[in-house]
Design goal:
With 495 residues, the chain is α+β, with helices and mostly antiparallel strands. The protein has helices at 2-15, 19-54, 71-79, 93-105, 121-127, 166-178, 200-208, 218-221, 242-253, 272-279, 339-345, 430-441, 463-494; strands at 84-89, 109-114, 135-140, 143-148, 153-156, 161-164, 184-188, 212-216, 228-234, 257-261, 283-285, 289-292, 298-299, 302-310, 324-329, 334-336, 347-354, 359-362, 377-378, 383-393, 396-403, 413-415, 421-423, 456-457. The chain is elongated, with a radius of gyration of 34 Å. The model is unreliable at 454-462 (pLDDT under 50).
């Protein structure tokens, strides 16, 4: 019996691995784990370096594609046949990334990123840049434009949020330095209902897209200036003079192009001189206003703020390949002559914008109700925007774009609720409709588009919030890895 016990004990002892062998195996497995972690880290670093060098395009999964170039920016960039240089100095990664996107569209647009300005004394001398400067310089030939960090952000004063406008700033700068001759838009002054201040944002938008916007008083100049690309007329508070009428008629006879933003003539004032200009195209502006019955076609239950439908099949809108809606405030309707009269005048008409099938027309302004009354007239699908082409001769055609509303292009503040308001120009596609109309009249087809809302909210954090974010991103994953290794080691020792 004792012999069997001894043999069993010997067997157990023989099957046990020496302590040194077990310790060596543990060290080898631990070393292998550490090596694997180091390989993963090295692979991540190497992959990041590779991607950074190759400058692969980012994948934008946002609904509005706020991190991608808009169609208009791509169109502008791809059409450039000059060498353009964008120099980025001490700028954020978002600006650097967006600048690179232009190069991916057109290799004539080159990007240079400078983090140490001391390496470029030529720039410090030419632009007065210091080591603390954060600027982007867009150059083309002898033209350049300098953007500071403030140009890439703005504040929405309706919500008091910071907005990122990087793409808008860069695209406009590229357009500005590559445009040889800017189309000049002249705004007729002297009889206007609205002060020029109400057109501030609209004129600024035109300037951003490389137009020149100037006021003109025809009683001073005696004629429409020779460099006028488009003559713009807004709602008149009184009739123009005979001299102004004749100057405009002469401009039309030379094939001049005009755009008219006018509210209805609610006062019923007689304006024979201005009407003589409109008669050249066989149109007139109503004295009554259009109102809406369909709650889906009005702004916040306001029957006078109509959502009009913009036709996608016209000369002005076809390039957008999308449906647009605009919001007109107390618009009139455009009265168009019959086909026989239009043929006599040599005028062709394209309908640009219409009201809904439930709209109605009111001339009695003592009625304050927003609902249709017996005195109101059913007026479905009325024309509130039109393009009129007048043939002067075989070689000359004059064009007029007319909208029976002026408010929609102004920065008139429209109250949304007790807290917020918005400018009339910012509703729906108001800005797009107005600027695309200018682009059409100036033969800039590549500028006809639905503009992306590049004003994305920039998220800013406090120092404490930033510490919490970094902890979540880095500290917690590292702690999980360490705890995992410790648990694995403890379990191995227990075996």
């Amino acid at each position: 019996m004792s012999k069997e016990k001894n043999n069993s004990k010997d067997l157990i002892v023989k099957n046990e691995k020496p302590y040194k062998e077990r310790k060596g195996k543990w060290l080898r497995q631990t070393s292998l784990t550490v090596l694997l972690i180091l390989i993963i880290i090295a692979a991540c670093i190497g992959l990041n370096i590779f991607v950074e060098e190759k400058n692969f395009a980012d994948i934008d999964v946002t609904q509005d594609k706020i991190y991608s170039l808009s169609d208009m920016s791509k169109s502008i960039a791809s059409s450039i046949d000059k060498d353009v240089e964008i120099i980025i100095i001490n700028m954020t990664d978002s600006v650097k990334d967006f600048a690179q996107k232009y190069n991916s569209v057109n290799d004539k647009i080159t990007i240079e990123v400078i983090d140490d300005i001391t390496s470029r004394p030529d720039l410090t001398d030419e632009y007065g840049i210091t080591a603390d400067s954060s600027v982007a310089i867009v150059k083309c030939g002898d033209k350049d434009k300098t953007l500071t960090s403030y140009d890439f952000y703005t504040t929405d004063y309706t919500t008091y949020q910071t907005k990122d406008i990087t793409e808008e700033a860069l695209t406009n700068a590229i357009l500005d330095v590559t445009t040889d001759e800017k189309p000049v838009i002249y705004n007729l002054t002297g009889h206007n209902k609205y002060a020029s201040d109400y057109l501030y944002y609209f004129s600024a938008d035109l300037a951003d897209e490389a137009y020149e916007f100037k006021d003109v008083d025809l009683l001073t100049t005696g004629e429409v200036p020779e460099d006028c690309s488009v003559l713009m007329i807004t709602t008149l508070a009184e009739d123009i003079t005979e001299a102004e009428r004749d100057a405009i008629l002469k401009y039309i006879d030379k094939g001049g192009k005009m755009i008219l933003f006018t509210d209805p003539n609610t006062t019923g004032d007689d304006m024979p001189n201005f009407q003589a200009v409109l008669d050249e195209y066989g149109v007139g502006i109503s004295e009554g206003v259009m109102l809406e019955q369909d709650s889906d076609k009005m702004l916040y239950g306001t029957a006078s703020a109509i959502l009009v439908t913009v036709s996608p099949y016209t000369s002005v809108t076809s390039d957008t390949n999308m449906n647009m809606n605009a919001c007109f405030m107390s618009p009139g309707r455009i009265d168009i002559a019959d086909s026989e009269k239009l043929e006599e005048l040599g005028v062709e008409v394209e309908t640009l914008a219409t009201t809904s099938e439930n709209s109605f027309y009111r001339t009695n302004y003592s009625i304050t109700s927003g609902t249709k009354t017996d005195e109101d007239e059913d007026a479905p699908n009325e024309t509130v925007g039109a393009l009129l082409k007048k043939k002067i001769n075989d070689d000359t055609t004059s064009e007029l774009i007319m909208y029976s509303n002026n408010i929609f292009i102004t920065n008139l503040q429209i109250q949304l609720n007790t807290q917020y308001y918005s400018y009339a120009l910012d509703f729906y596609n108001n800005e797009d409709l107005a600027i695309n109309s200018i682009a059409y009249l100036t033969d800039r087809d590549n500028m006809i588009t639905i503009r992306k809302d590049t004003e994305t909210t920039a998220y800013t954090v406090t120092q404490q919030q930033n510490l919490i974010i970094l902890t979540i991103i880095f500290a917690i994953p590292i702690m999980i890895i360490i705890i995992g290794i410790i648990v694995w080691i403890v379990r191995r020792r227990k075996k």
